[in-house]
Amino acid sequence: MTIQEEIAELKSRRNAVILAHNYERGEVQDVADYTGDSLELARKATQVEADTIVFCGVYFMAETAAILNPDKTVLIPDATAGCPMADMITGEQLREMKRKHPGAKAVCYVNSTAEVKAECDICVTSGNAEKVMRTFAPEEEIIFVPDQHLGGFVAAKLGVKYVLWPGYCPTHARLTAKMIEDARAKYPGAPVMVHPECAKDVRDAADQVLSTGGMCKLVRTSEAKTILVGTELGICHRLRKENPDKTFIPVAEHLVCPNMKKTTLEKLRDALRDMAPQVTVAPEIAGPARRAIERMLEIA
Ligand code: 13P
Ligand code: SF4
Fold first, then answer.
1. Is position 255 within any domain?
2. Can you give the CATH number for the domain in which 142 is found?
3. CA 129 to chain centre
4. Using 50, 70 and 90 to split pLDDT, how confident is the model at 54?
5. Mutate to test the pocket of ligand 1, among 19, 21, 63 (most ligand atoms within 8 A of CB)
6. What is the number of other CB atoms lying within 10 angstroms of the CB of residue 131?
7. Residues 90 and 159 grouped into a single domain
8. What's the domain count of the chain?
9. Distance between CA atoms of residues 192 and 207, nearest Å
């Protein structure tokens, strides 16, 4: 039996569904029932009928699925697959910020811990941040955590200022405007798309700033035959599979999120076999965190 067959057999025995983020290894994406960005997967987690969700992604994503599905078993193949940006702010640091800005609304990027979500009025993902933030009056004071880049990107689009936490993604921080310039010189005319977690000068050097789901949608209708991709390399697997007539060139070959790569087929099989590691969230945190996520899902 191949490992893919073992996974399929265990999946049906456990009545499980496999969700995988667009940055996961190609072979993991290939055995998943659904592949998507953070927003698509959070939404999918609310729609599946399975008893068990195996979340191939980083911890905050599996935690979001667990918060939205208190009656399901949520498994993560490697529980050490964290997101360093999510860990850049603690619940206590956010409470301190709120004390300094009484009356401000607190908004968190979905790349945050359940404890931070529980302290927030609403949550956003890179796929819906602009739409969600438009629901606030321009004069409203907003605390935005943890990603300074996504926060800065949306604030600039809406012509407002947020109180930003200085968090960032260490993987996207490795992409520079010079790398985009070099890639453009090598592939003249090819459009460049980058993720909003990139720094401002990098975003300014690109043609499109999109969530990973936004990138997958855009390329389907793009007339360009060669597209330069400024985000984590895992997405190229899906882009190539879905668009065999197009060429996708990573702007930088070292844009690899080590945590997304921790999930392997072996760990996925073992998680289904052992029904572990399970992701659970204490009810006193899950309740308020769920409100922040559900408010977001209602808007976008
Ligand atoms: P997306 O929601 O665009 O998939 O982004 C998630 C993420 O962690 C990007 O680094
Ligand atoms: Fe976190 Fe960055 Fe990895 Fe996304 S790519 S999971 S933001 S470290």
1. no
2. 3.40.50.10800
3. 12
4. very high
5. 21
6. 13
7. yes
8. 3
9. 5
